[in-house]
Design brief:
Shape: globular
Largest sheet: 6 strands, parallel
CATH topology: Rossmann fold
Order of helices and strands: HHEHEHEHHEHEEH
Structural class: alpha/beta
CATH class: Alpha Beta
Number of strands: 6
Distance between the termini: 31 Å
CATH architecture: 3-Layer(aba) Sandwich
Radius of gyration: 16 Å
Strand content: 15-25%
CATH superfamily: Flavodoxin domain
Number of domains: 1
Length: 235
Amino acid sequence: MAEDLTRRAILGAAGAAAVAGMATQAAQAAEGKEAPKGGPIKIIGLSTSPRKGKTTAAALQVCLDAAKAVGPNIEVELIELAGLNIGVFDPGNPDAGAGDFKKVAAALADPKVGGIIVGTPVYFGSMSSLCKAFLDRCIAFRKDNFALANKVAGMVAVGGMRNGGQELTIQTVQAALLAQEMILVGDGRPTAHRGATLWNSANDDISGDEVGLSTARNLGRRVAEVALRVAGTAR
């Protein structure tokens, strides 16, 4: 069900008009024409793992479930980049290898989106190459009136060890998102650190990592709570 919804959301977007429309959306937000107060607020989980449906996606789903539980007007969606065509960014030829980037970008720039949770596996103490390629291409948002500005951002990192570089990886993703004028949050209380840090102990399974799962739940809740406050709909 989640996969079908994600595919419809991505493939249904108009590729050529996607990034061009971000400027209009940002201008509308500046004029106070964003999604009506009290209306739905969407939280998107963006998995940048090259392996579809594995532990990064599972961790993001935990975040999204916790976010949805915050209030009746919270909507959630999981988008996985695995299998999509998003090539290495070349500033000299930015359209080369863009592939599916514009479709995903359109989904993220939707004014109804109040929060984005980026998830990545940890490879040698840093983000996946797919995550890096995507974040580099996000320069398009800066060029189109900072379409991600004031959206809430949270980070998830899944490593092969309990202390396998998750927090360092989160910080590298945060550095890129700060350049987008996003509002960065960590996992909320009682863990309250930089983000969700999970351990893929074996066999592509995070279900036994209760410490990590608690950070994921806290992160999802925190992203939703702050998104509601930014939208002016918090109780």
